[in-house]
Amino acid sequence: MYALLRTSVLAGLAIAALLFPLAAMAGLSAKAGFNAIDTLSVEVTETDPPLTSYVYASDGETLISLFYDEFRRHVSLDEVAPVMQQAMVAAEDSRFYQHNGVDYRGIVRAFVANNSSGGVEQGASTITMQYVRGALQLNAESIDEVIAATEQTATRKLTEARLAMAVEEQLTKDEILERYLNQAYFGHNAYGIFAAAQVYFSKHPSELSLQEAATLAGLVQAPSAYDPIVSDQTDALARRNWVLDRMVDIDYLSRGDASEVRGLPIELHVSDPPNSCIGVEGTPSEYGFFCDYFRRWWREQDAFGATPADRERELRQGGYTIITTLDPELQKLANDTVNDAKSEESKYAHGAVLMEPGTGRVKALGLNRTFSYDQSHNGPHSNPSFDRKGNYPNTVNPVLGGGAEGGYQAGSTFKIFTLLAALDAGYPLDYNIYSPNQVRTSFVSATTACGGNWCPKNSSAAMAGNRDMWSGFGMSVNTYFAQLIDRVGADKAVEMAERMGLEWRSEGDAYYASEERRSGWGPFVLGVSDVQPIEMTNVFNTLAAEGEYCEPIPALRIIDPQGQELDAAAPRCHQELDKDVARAATDAGRCVTETARKGAQCGSWGTSPVVGKLAGRPVAGKSGTTDNNRTSWFLGYTPQLTIGAFMADPDYIFNEVGTANTTVSKATVGAIFKEALEGEEVIDFKAPSREIQYDGKD
Q: Which residues form the Penicillin-binding protein transpeptidase domain (predicted)?
């Protein structure tokens, strides 16, 4: 009798403290005063918990990856099975629809139950109070505020209770329950009911059964203690059955229906959602490199925050739906092609970039690597001075571009910049220069072999003779372009490269490209500067769009949690080149792949006829290899699609890919064109005006 009396007195004191919050809060800070409570309650009701961003391919259905710190997706209350709503109320706050945010009966009941058992059998916090506590944690701006929102003190509990009552004046019960269901933690990084239904049962919360709902409702109090994924489900079963009993007690469930479920085991269908470009359960994703390129692009967009770190946080917490530009079929084709390509050694990276002219949209990024952080089974590093694992077959390095890292020398593909600079300055396609096997230019060289001048040679004596832009470009005649850049000006060629989107990624490149030195950088014409594959592919993508330059972009649509579509994914294009200049460059580029074409003086051969034969349609482009064949490139385009392929050793750029691999990139581009455009309309390039072809200038 004395114990019962003592319990009632203590419970009464607790209730009295809650009924007279002004006296109880006399010692609190101003933030917890009545005015502050009113203000804070508004903040609580407007709390937006971190949400997962979903990233899809261009079809809007193929999931590329998720980005999240807390796996959570908001669902409305009508998207949650009624039985799940009932189970949660029964487990956490059976008088939820009767109290005003604080359940005084529940306090007494919990006090008696806990005092009798000597432990914590029942909690006195209502669903509204739990929501308030969670919202305060989410809004916390420091660790001290997090501690203040969760510390076990009378002051904190009283503040929480007053806030709960204020919240109940501003929100309906259904609104509170919806917010709580989306906020609660269920274990296994599942925040909110959508994530819980996905992680434990691989289904939408609207599809949850009675036994599944009771299992999930039982987790919220102590997710680790009642974890059903562990091998022993004894505690999880007991907790689920307790929830069923509570549902019977408040007339949500008949005893007969509860008895049927009590005898059932907990049948899970566990999911491990992908995160940050890594697939389910850490498995590699075929979209990993594209996904990482998208992430790096997002970090550079001012629309999503002031700094790269802020922007990434926004991606991981903002709950965006992102439809990317990735075409799943083209991605598979690119991956299959680069991995099937024959090369002498697997240490060489072989990749392909597919882009859409006129938009800059990146359609696919193929690479003969696996996007994975696990490099424990990689081979040794190819740089002999590095005593560590290399980046094959697994890597997360941005081999194809998009990061701050440097690129690779692109060899004769850089002749495109001198060609464009000459055309832009008024030189015609038939501009003829006698081009011997070796030529002395006016550019100064550090070597004394040619009297202190730069004196490049052709790769073959058969290239010598009278050449114009068609034959010089198609046959890749070094001595023609060395003389052309001498006449046009190296500064004009470097400026053209910048106009076409190139950045100077090494100290050496930045040094020679500086305003005071670029006019003397003659070797630039032969591709001595580093460039990233995505960057270089976009140069030729601009030509495919008749001079319309578009920034490379991996996003098609970006939709915020409110359903508003943002303009951050809109193509960013402008007319950089005169259309006639671009068309003339394309006309010369066709000599590389279509040597039998009439109406142009392509010479007796081109460097890459295999591309034209495989594509089976008009295609322009340029091949490129560097000194000692350290890299091998081909960049090609049709009016509908641009493809750039390369081969190099990204770990040690001084490794030579070898003569046998110099044709691999050409074959890759041709094969992708053949299959990607099969059944598509054959569109011819538009010819340049006769003035730019035949004005007789020499």
A: 351-651
